[in-house]
From TrEMBL:
Residues passing through the membrane, by range: none
Protein name (record): Trehalose 6-phosphate phosphatase
Catalytic activity: alpha,alpha-trehalose 6-phosphate + H2O = alpha,alpha-trehalose + phosphate
UniProt cross-references to NCBIfam families, sorted A to Z: HAD-SF-IIB, T6PP
UniProt cofactor(s): Mg(2+)
Length: 247
């Protein structure tokens, strides 16, 4: 089914949850090649002000990665697929790092050394193999990550041209629901924007709480009610939605 674009007044009285990679910034060859430019920084600052702080970035990246990209921002952050949270009141919570991750990183690094172009991303609560530069390595990367996750009883997390082994027990949906329980957001209507399969639990959670999801990218099966074609359309729509809040 073709989903319509969201109306410009969708954010009125809402709490806004934003995925990062593929939603606010274009995907790049390398995780560290991504930057928050002046337009995006100003847009998120305006939105945060217009929504009285009811904005959260919900990412697979670690909290500290998002924080560094935005320069210690005044909004909530869910990082590492819901395993780390900076709450609207500034408190921080995070799951425990299992010792097994050190062995997993070592195994992934050995695989990357033997497979030029594959990158290992070390995260506080996970480790990811990126094969964007070597698509032919997909099968071997997934096989290795699947075995490492099973051996350590950790969670296998797929992503766009990457596969990750991470701590289980949370996802973007549990993060959105927990944030909606915080005093700053309780009673509002959650609106979530995201592009990836990993964003679907948050689309489902937003709907369950009376809100909606906006799919970013090409049509696909989704719990979202609205769709925008890509990052450029998303930034333009967020601009228009901010104007609508001020009107
Ligand atoms: O939940 P998100 O904010 O969308 O983060 C998902 C993952 O994003 C990053 O990887 C992806 O973006 C990279 C930069 O564009 C790209 O090179 C990579 O192929 C993508 O998978 C990030 O590195 C991961 O940690 C996030 O889980």
């Amino acid at each position: 089914m073709t989903l319509p674009p969201p109306p410009a007044d969708l954010l009125r009285d809402a709490a806004l949850f934003l995925d990062f990679d593929g939603t606010l910034v274009e995907l790049e060859a390398h995780p560290e090649a991504v930057a928050v430019d002046a337009r995006l920084a100003a847009l998120i600052a305006r939105l945060t002000q217009a929504l009285d702080g009811r904005v959260a970035i919900v990412s697979g990246r670690p909290v500290n990665g998002i924080r560094a990209l935005f320069g210690d921002p005044p909004f909530a952050i869910s990082g590492s697929h819901g395993l780390e949270v900076v709450w609207p009141d500034g408190r921080e919570t995070r799951a425990e790092r299992p010792a097994a991750l050190d062995r997993i990183v070592a195994s992934m690094k050995a695989f990357a050394t033997a497979t030029p172009g594959v990158l290992v991303e070390e995260k506080p609560l996970g480790a990811a193999l990126h094969y964007r530069a070597v698509p032919a390595a997909e099968q071997a990367a997934h096989a290795l990550a699947t075995r490492l996750a099973a051996d350590a009883a950790l969670h296998l997390q797929t992503g766009k041209m990457m596969v990750e082994v991470r701590v289980p027990g949370a996802d973007k949906g549990t993060a959105l629901a927990a944030l909606m329980d915080s005093p700053a957001l309780a009673g509002r209507r959650p609106v979530f924007l995201g592009d990836d399969d990993t964003d679907e639990p948050a689309m489902v959670a937003a709907r369950a709480l009376g809100g909606a999801g906006v799919l970013i990218g090409a049509p696909r099966p989704t719990a979202a009610l609205w769709r925008l074609a890509g990052v450029a359309d998303t930034l333009n729509w967020l601009d228009a939605a901010t104007e609508s809040l001020a009107a």
